[in-house]
Write a structure and sequence with these properties.
The complex is a heterodimer. By secondary structure, chain A is mostly beta strands. Chain A has no helices and eleven strands. In chain A, the strands form two sheets. In chain A, strands 2, 4, 5, 6, 9, 10 and 11 form a seven-stranded mixed beta sheet that branches. A four-stranded antiparallel beta sheet of chain A has the order 1-3-8-7, with no helix packed on it. The termini of chain A are far apart. In chain B, the strands form two sheets. Chain B has a six-stranded mixed beta sheet, with no helix packed on it. Chain B contains no helices and ten strands. Chain B is mainly beta. The radius of gyration of chain B is 13 Å and the shape is globular. The chains are: A mainly beta, B mainly beta. At the A-B interface, β5, β9 and β10 of A face β4 and β5 of B.
């Protein structure tokens, strides 16, 4: 199984900060990497698929990059509504995929 | 707009089974697969398996093989997930999501989730 490891597990930041979350795969997954946002008590929502393609309706302050085993999610200027938990997910191993353990982004 | 609506919360005793439904609307059901993902309280996301709404092909995560069955009813655009031999470790919110398989490896949209509580 491909293991997905996110870092950090939690992060405190302020409104307006630039934030980067990292996701590392245990083996190469090419560009088959997706990102989700989950707010407390809510359903996960797709932010980015295939490493860097922004889902429709997602603000442009979100961006993704990487390839192979190392990927990043960047929020260019944090907004109050961005405080949530973020998950990466590999989609190489069709159709059973694995998620990272999550990164909880909290207000400083 | 694509939408998935799941059945309501369930409380089950250890050893019992649960069947969760997921009704799709706003898209052609048979053009996409449906995946099932669960989330234990305070924990992360775990992929349970996938079903093709086109031909009913299924693939289950090894952890759940022998204990889970995923089906679809194309006449009602509904997917089902049945989990048997429940234990307290199965207490979780169960989500269905469009996607997986050949229809792209990302999940969008998700159902609202179904809380399954296993307790004696």
């Amino acid at each position: 199984d491909i293991q997905m490891t996110q870092s950090p597990s939690s992060l405190s930041a302020s409104v307006g900060d630039r934030v980067t979350i990292t996701c590392r795969a245990s083996q190469s997954i090419s560009a088959y990497l997706n990102w989700y946002q989950q707010k407390p008590g809510k359903v996960p929502e797709l932010l980015i698929h295939t490493t860097s393609t922004l889902q429709s309706g997602v603000p442009s302050r979100f961006s993704g990059s990487g390839s192979g085993t190392d990927f990043t999610l960047t929020i260019s200027s944090l907004q109050p509504e961005d405080f949530a938990t973020y998950y990466c997910q590999q989609s190489l191993t069709i159709p059973i995929y694995t998620f990272g353990q999550g990164t909880k982004l909290e207000i400083k | 707009q694509a939408q998935l609506v799941q059945s309501g919360a369930e409380v089950k005793k250890p050893g019992a089974s649960v069947k969760v439904s997921c009704k799709a609307s706003g898209y052609t059901f048979t053009n996409f697969g449906v995946s099932w993902v669960r989330q234990a309280p305070g924990q992360g996301l775990e992929c349970m398996g996938w079903i093709s709404a086109y031909n009913g092909d299924t693939k289950y995560a090894q952890k759940f093989q022998g204990r889970v069955t995923m089906t679809t009813d194309t006449s009602t655009s509904t997917a089902y997930m049945e989990l048997r031999s429940l234990s307290s470790d199965d207490t979780a919110v169960y989500y269905c999501a469009r996607g997986g398989g050949g229809s792209g490896g990302w999940f969008d949209p998700w159902g609202q989730g179904t809380l399954v509580t296993v307790s004696s």
